[in-house]
């Protein structure tokens, strides 16, 4: 993968594209979740390299995309992603967003209708306000004190166990967390949850204007993701695929199953 950068007023975003881009192939844009980076999708990138043009970023303020001022919005992230897509001539990609990455994908679909050929949500949730009780949004704004009170060693252990069910997935999550100091991690996590609350309360009226599949680990214990996916699927008529034995980072726990879903959607929209 080729490493590239995209400059913004808040900092530079580092991203990677396939070594050999063939514009006759479909594009897939992989969007990691909060506190993770491009390595979250290493088993997807290995599978799809040579079959599709791949793009993956370290989200703003994550991984190599630091230093980066924590004063941006979900719409800023979507606009920057759209700018990167334009710079790489990555037209109509299938967006694969895990957790926070799924919210960014929805914001892009909202702001730039027709930009995405498809959307695979991996253990994410809807951005529409109607799915969220008031108390849940309020809770998103009050996470800093909770994380600050937990010793760093324990917080890292809980983070790994809470994100994945497999040894590989948990080791990867530990590696992400080891890349931050406790203060950096707490600041980023608290900011990310506030960013999400602000985006939900924007009262978006968007519709997902491309084929979409929801993927959710059957053992995803991150908040109410399982409940949200059930409600999202029923409320929007979206295909929901449960991944047996997988946690919140389902694509690391069961990469073959998740890759098969992505491949199914890519073939459906690009054939």
CATH architecture, by name, is 3-Layer(aba) Sandwich
Mean pLDDT: 96
Distance between the termini: 25 Å
Number of strands: 8
Task: Report the principal-axis shape.
Answer: globular
CATH topology: Rossmann fold
What is the fourth-level CATH superfamily? Alpha/Beta hydrolase fold, catalytic domain
Topology as H/E string?
EEEHEHEHEHHHHHEHEHH
Total number of domains: 1
CATH top level is: Alpha Beta
Give unreliable regions as ranges: none
Helix content, binned percent: 40-55%
Short description, anyone?
This protein has 271 residues and is of the alpha/beta class. It has helices at residues 42-48, 74-87, 100-111, 134-140, 144-149, 152-163, 167-178, 182-200, 225-236, 250-253, 255-270, and strands at residues 2-8, 11-17, 27-31, 53-57, 94-98, 118-122, 212-217, 239-243. The mean pLDDT is 96.
Q: Could you characterize the architecture of this molecule?
A:
The protein is α/β, with parallel strands linked by helices and 271 residues long. The chain has one domain: Alpha/Beta hydrolase fold, catalytic domain (Rossmann fold, 3-Layer(aba) Sandwich), CATH 3.40.50. The chain has eleven helices and eight strands. The chain has an eight-stranded mixed beta sheet with strand order 1-2-4-3-5-6-7-8, with helices on both faces. Helix 1 packs across helix 11, helix 2 packs across helix 3 and helix 6 runs antiparallel to helix 7. The longest helix is centred in the last third of the chain and has 19 residues. The two termini are 25 Å apart. The relative contact order is 0.16.
């Amino acid at each position: 993968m080729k490493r590239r950068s995209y400059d913004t007023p808040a900092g530079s975003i580092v991203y990677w594209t396939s070594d050999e881009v063939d514009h006759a192939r479909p594009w897939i844009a992989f969007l990691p979740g909060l506190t993770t980076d491009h390595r979250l999708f290493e088993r997807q990138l290995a599978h799809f390299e040579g079959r599709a043009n791949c793009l993956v970023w370290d989200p703003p303020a994550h991984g190599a995309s630091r230093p980066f001022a924590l004063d941006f919005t979900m719409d800023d992230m979507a606009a920057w992603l759209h700018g990167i897509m334009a710079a790489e001539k990555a037209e109509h990609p299938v967006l694969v967003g895990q957790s926070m990455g799924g919210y960014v994908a929805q914001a892009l679909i909202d702001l730039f209708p027709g930009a995405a050929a498809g959307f695979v949500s991996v253990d994410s949730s809807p951005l529409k306000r109607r799915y969220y009780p008031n108390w849940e949004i309020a809770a998103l704004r009050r996470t800093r004190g909770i994380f600050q009170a937990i010793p760093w060693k324990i917080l890292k252990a809980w983070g790994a166990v809470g994100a994945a069910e497999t040894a590989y997935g948990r080791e990867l999550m530990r590696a992400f967390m080891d890349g931050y100091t406790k203060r950096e991690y707490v600041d980023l996590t608290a900011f990310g949850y506030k960013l999400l609350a602000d985006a939900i309360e924007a009262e978006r009226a968007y519709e997902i204007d491309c084929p979409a599949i929801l993927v959710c680990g059957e053992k995803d214990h991150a908040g109410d993701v399982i409940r949200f996916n059930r409600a999202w699927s029923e409320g929007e008529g979206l295909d929901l695929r449960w991944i047996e034995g997988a946690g919140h980072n389902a694509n690391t726990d069961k990469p073959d199953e998740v890759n098969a879903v992505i491949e199914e959607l890519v073939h459906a929209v690009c054939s």
